[in-house]
Amino acid sequence: MQQMAVSAFTANPSSSHGNTLSGLCSRRPEIWHRRRIGSRIRAQAQSQMQYRKLGDSDLVISEVTLGTMTFGEQNTEKEAHDILSYSFDQGYPVPPRKETQGRTDLYIGSWMQSKPRDKIILATKVSGYSERSTFLRDNAKVVRVDAANIKESVEKSLSRLSTDYIDLLQIHWPDRYVPLFGEYCYNPTKWRPSVPFEEQLKAFQELIDEGKVRYIGVSNETSYGVMEFVHAAKVQGLPKIVSIQNSYSLIVRCHFEG
């Protein structure tokens, strides 16, 4: 459209503004050409994936990662593979998922069989306290973030993913009561005994020592919880959390910005 506009101007030198327009338009193709090239260069630079070191870990991940929560519900296995392959080619090395989406594990696991494992950073989660997600465990009346639940979660995830290690394992939400998922104010009547921070970290330490988990993190966590995890790790010599995945966007900001 820009070239058509230039042709329309230059084709009418007999206009009362002929000389002016002719002189101006004779330079416009060059000016617009430079602008188009500049725009393409800027767009190309912006499209190149940026990478950052994740906390105190050795993981270098893309600023934007591929989320796979709806895999297995809103797409087929082939569609999931196509998305994963495209994202992999574009430089998204982290397919994050959680144990509550078991079919996602299977789709990612089958896709990874044709990819170099060391080129993929795999992040997953262990569920927090839940009385409704007992289907995740064998013969459980409630899901907790204790040693037994953490170990069972990781073993099942590794089996579904057909891999022998997880790069980043995060706690999906705390074992203790915190206001979550639409609840914004703390309700003291919902307080309950919780698994000590040290016990959770010791369970993660065992998995790290076994080579099944590389790094750990938290999700949907509060500043108090982060402080306690960091303090316990420092005092007890246990693994330190390297990531926090909380809800934060243009419409969810108040908890972090005051």
Can you tag this structure with a few keywords?
258 residues, alpha/beta, TIM Barrel, 2 domains, globular, oxidoreductase
Task: Explain the overall architecture.
The protein has helices at 2-10, 18-47, 77-90, 102-112, 147-161, 197-209, 223-236, 254-257; strands at 51-53, 60-62, 123-126, 166-171, 213-219, 241-245. By secondary structure, the chain is an alpha/beta fold. The protein folds into two domains: 2-47; 51-257, TIM Barrel (Alpha-Beta Barrel), CATH 3.20.20. It has a four-stranded parallel β-sheet with strand order 3-4-5-6, covered by helices on one side. It has a two-stranded antiparallel ribbon with strand order 1-2. The radius of gyration is 26 Å and the shape is globular. Mean pLDDT is 82; it is low at 1-26.
